[in-house]
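Researcher: Next sequence.
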Amino acid sequence: MLLAEHDGGGVTERLRDGTVLWEQKADGVIVAQRLDNGNTFIATRARIFEVDREGREVFAWSPGGDGEQIMRAKKLPDGTYAVILHERQRYVRVDRHGKEVDGLGLNVNVQTFGGRLDVQPNGNVLIPQMYANRVIEYDAKGKVVREFQVGQPIVAVRLPNGNTIVTSMNENRAVEFDQAGKQVWEYRGKTRVTRAYRR
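Model: Next structure:
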């Protein structure tokens, strides 16, 4: 397991028994993503960066502007980095040179920090709007493709079969929707369910 340990001082790769196999120190980590080349992509509120297996930094970027913070981020297969910015409440993509190359140019209304963005190969992006109680899927041009109604969604993940799993802040649950938007599965916990994936 690769864990972004926000209050733990960094990112760890662990066995299920907790044994640490690899770690990278960083303050306030909100995202950790292992890449196909073995590197690890990491985001904090202040910056995104990528390190190799030895911990050497091979890329770094910070948003401009006073007080701007990163809310969510992910490295995409084309080598760009997808980021949601807090103050401007917008989705942007950053190239390997640290230049903003494009984005949806609209208010994404994301209220929670942490978690990867789900960006599809066709450029569609899933945006959980917690206080609007919905997940909106936008296409690459910012047009709404579909919408899922969920109480205070935190994270939305598209599955290989086209279904979507959404976790809820206040309902202590994860729910799966089919492509038509019908609920087909649910898990309820005793505490907040923040992340869910299907293996």
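Model: The mean pLDDT is 92. The CA atoms of residues 173 and 188 lie 4 Å apart.
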